Amino acid sequence: MKNMSLTTRVIIFLLGIAVLGWIAHYIIDVAIYISIVSVLGVLGVLGYKLFVFLFSNKDKE
Questions:
Q1: What pLDDT is stored for residue 5 in this prediction?
Q2: Residue 17 has what DSSP assignment?
Q3: What pLDDT was estimated at residue 61?
Q4: Which of these, 35, 34, 54, 57, lies nearest to 46 by C-alpha position?
Q5: Count of the separate structural domains present in the chain
Q6: pTM reported for the whole predicted model
Q7: Distance (Å, whole) CA 14 – CA 60
């Protein structure tokens, strides 16, 4: 019985680690995707503002 319960505990422990690892992997993927999108968004806004700034200066000249 002790060996059986020990094996069961090890299996449950490994399954728990696998599930936690899968969840963490999914969360990390989502976080990376969100960060990439936010960085692209910020760069797009800055690029657009720079574009407008340059063109408005050319119009003034």
A1: 86
A2: H
A3: 54
A4: 54
A5: 1
A6: 0.49
A7: 68
